[in-house]
Specification:
about 200 residues, mainly beta, Sulfite Oxidase, Chain A, domain 2, 5-stranded mixed sheet, 11 strands
Length: about 200
């Protein structure tokens, strides 16, 4: 896929207990994508959760907007080495989306409208750790940042926070996503600098 923006160079590193090793702080919000920004009509937008049994739960835009909404302020960390502190988002907790789902799965795959996927352990997206967000800093989420809705998983590198999100599938086994199959780390903990698979 074309259009990937390379990492940034020459930024001043900041010593902080909120900035992982090898990261620099930015006041901007860099736009990094593996391809073109899709155009998504909210009249046709749906979000679907599919359990490992095939059980499906789906919400259209209005149904999703009617779910309990949460506002969270979090720090985010990109694998290209920028970090941005105190970003504020509003959306629906994954706990809310999974409330009626019966599952014994250990893993999840997050899916996007452009075909992008990323994998995460199920334990990392429950208990108030992840959201599907539709607002950033009090405004509807811009398309270049993943609007109308993106995944938000702030404790892992930001490629795990998939843009243009369309659903979550639950699995008994791990299923690497787009960047993980391309050599990025399967988990992606910024505090351990888990940027790439071993050997990179």
């Amino acid at each position: 896929m074309s259009g990937l923006t390379p990492g940034f160079q020459g930024r001043r590193r900041i010593e902080s207990d909120r900035v992982p090793p090898g990261q620099y702080l930015t006041e901007d919000f860099p736009v990094l994508s593996a391809g073109p920004t899709p155009s998504i009509d909210i009249a046709e937008w749906t979000f679907t959760v599919v359990a490992e049994t095939g059980e499906r739960h789906a919400w259209d835009w209005d149904q999703f907007a009617a779910l309990a909404q949460e506002t969270r302020t979090v720090d985010i960390h990109c694998v290209t080495r920028w970090s941005k502190l105190d970003t504020t988002w509003r959306g629906v907790s994954v706990d809310t989306l999974l409330a009626e789902v019966e599952t014994a799965a250990d893993f999840a795959v997050v899916h996007s409208f452009d075909g992008y996927t990323t994998n995460v352990p199920l334990d990392d997206i429950i208990d108030g750790q992840a959201w599907v967000v539709t607002e950033y800093e009090g405004e509807p989420l811009a398309a270049e940042h993943g609007g109308p809705a993106r995944f938000l998983l702030p404790h892992l590198y930001f490629w795990k926070s998939a843009k243009w999100v369309s659903g979550i599938t639950l699995h008994d086994e791990d299923n690497p996503g787009f960047w993980e199959r391309a050599g990025y780390h399967d988990y992606g903990d910024p505090w351990l600098e888990q940027r790439y698979q071993s050997g990179w």
